[in-house]
Amino acid sequence: MKREKSKILMKQLCFFLFPFASLFLNCQAELKKEKLRSKPNIIYILADDLGYGDIGVYGQKKIETPNLDELASNGMIFTQHYTGAPVCAPARYMLLTGKHSGHSYIRGNYEWKERGNVWDYRAMIADSTLEGQFPIPTNSILFPQLLQKEGYTTGMVGKWGLGAPHTNSIPTKMGFDFFYGYNCQRQAHTYFPVHLYKNENRVYLNNDTIPPNTKLAKGANPFDSKSYSSFKLNEYAPDLMFKEMISFISENKQNPFFLYWATPIPHNPLQAPQKWINYYKEKFGEEKPYLGQNGYFPHQNPRAAYAAMISYLDENIGKLIMYLKDKNLYDNTLILFSSDNGVTYSGGTDGEFFNSSAIFGESYGRGKGFVYEGGIRVPMIATWNKNIKPGSITNHISAHYDVMPTLLELINYDNIPETDGISFLPTLTGKKEQDIHDFLYWEFPEYGGQVAVRIGDWKVIRRNLKRSDEKATLELYNLSKDPEELNNVANDHSDIIRIASDIFDKEHIKSEIERFRINSIENGLLSSQQ
């Protein structure tokens, strides 16, 4: 009888308390939503092969970038920001994982040609298993995955380059809720592709099959614009990407979002909207056509086309900023802009004409593909209204692999995983003292095999580590006195060389992928005279 009375009392109590419990849970849910809404949106824009000096605020005189210049005037310019690698895929891997190249799984471009003729554009269209690059492990930790755990909706638009269709190494399985663009970086060798990807599926475009490296028709007049008509097709991929990007923001603006805009611009080929080409044709005058001698499509006005691509990107950045302001999103959005590596030397790009690397040099051996400053020092602009001091400039030495710890600190992420980066959030906000790197590290197995380490103002470089026809170099430069890296003082500073040797010994982990190995590192890179 007592037990029955107890049950009745418990039911009555529960009935009485239920509304309060429900109210408590609803309050908790609302507080959680409010806390989530208070987190800033994050947009990271990564240009492709944009040189350190290709933007007005970094000294560019010929190419007009008013929107990027305004972005910088409203925020902060980094003068000593670096990529993790001087080419596409490894730079993107290190950005997303917070690892430097001594610890990275991807250390170079790997087109995974063991599958078949991966460079045949028509074959890739017919067989999607030939697309994409070598996949990264499924247990890799990319920072968008961690943003997802904190309630962020994550989207990527642009060029992936870190996996292949039909593998787990695709954006939607590596931390992105939404993806639109090129899965394969080889496909990005045309801006008028037959297809792009939306999430995991191909989206076919109204474009003909014009394989990359197609040349002018035999006997065609290179000074006649009609000779180039087959390279101007219907649907321009960057236009489509921009529309999808705005759509992603529109659909997710109620809660915090992270957008990774990995634009393929201004990577070759030289293909740009005609209005911008006409603008620079008038500005630059007549020029020598590029006939596709060393790859990519030919172009009648290569300098005008290169400048047009950058100004088109700048125009779209202006449109993005205007959209954010119109939707009252701008004030609560951190925007970061950078490039994956230095300016290229191929495909008709005339970096020397534009002085694309500022003082660091643009010729082959000094820009993309090399660990000299022209290949790895990149622009970086950060804007966050009322949080970053407008018009500020910092000399803080930083790298792409600092982005991961920076963004995780920004959102107060608990248990930040171990990375090789250091958060530069204190530099952005000025709210506490900034930690600094003891060194920056590069290990690049391509272009003959190269390594570099920056220790304060000192930079040690070794090249030709995988060549049998040339002796490996040992170079030391003082960047504060010799930023162009012209005066090798290695023979005068054995103490710096020893410090660098210790860093290489400590930071290098043997690559799991044989093509990325530099065997001389395992054999005592700087302690020998090899």
Fold blueprint:
Layout: H1 2-37, E1 41-47, H2 66-73, E2 76-82, H3 88-97, H4 121-126, H5 143-149, E3 153-159, E4 178-182, E5 195-198, E6 201-204, H6 237-252, E7 257-262, H7 274-284, H8 302-326, E8 333-339, H9 351-354, H10 373-376, E9 377-383, E10 392-394, E11 398-399, H11 403-410, H12 425-429, E12 440-444, E13 450-455, E14 458-462, E15 475-478, H13 494-507, H14 519-522
Helix pairs in contact: 7-8
How many beta-strand elements? Answer: 15
Q: Order of helices and strands, N to C?
A: HEHEHHHEEEEHEHHEHHEEEHHEEEEHH
Radius of gyration: 25 Å
Helix content: 25-40%
Q: What features would you highlight for this structure?
A:
single chain, 530 residues, alpha/beta
Question: What does this molecule look like?
Answer:
The chain has helices at residues 2-37, 66-73, 88-97, 121-126, 143-149, 237-252, 274-284, 302-326, 351-354, 373-376, 403-410, 425-429, 494-507, 519-522; strands spanning 41-47, 76-82, 153-159, 178-182, 195-198, 201-204, 257-262, 333-339, 377-383, 392-394, 398-399, 440-444, 450-455, 458-462, 475-478. A hairpin with a 2-residue loop joins β5 (195-198) and β6. The chain is an alpha/beta fold. α7 crosses α8. 30% of the residues lie in helices and 15% in strands. The strands form two sheets. Strands 1, 2, 3, 4, 5, 6, 7, 8, 9, 10 and 11 form an eleven-stranded mixed β-sheet that branches. The chain has 14 helices and 15 strands.
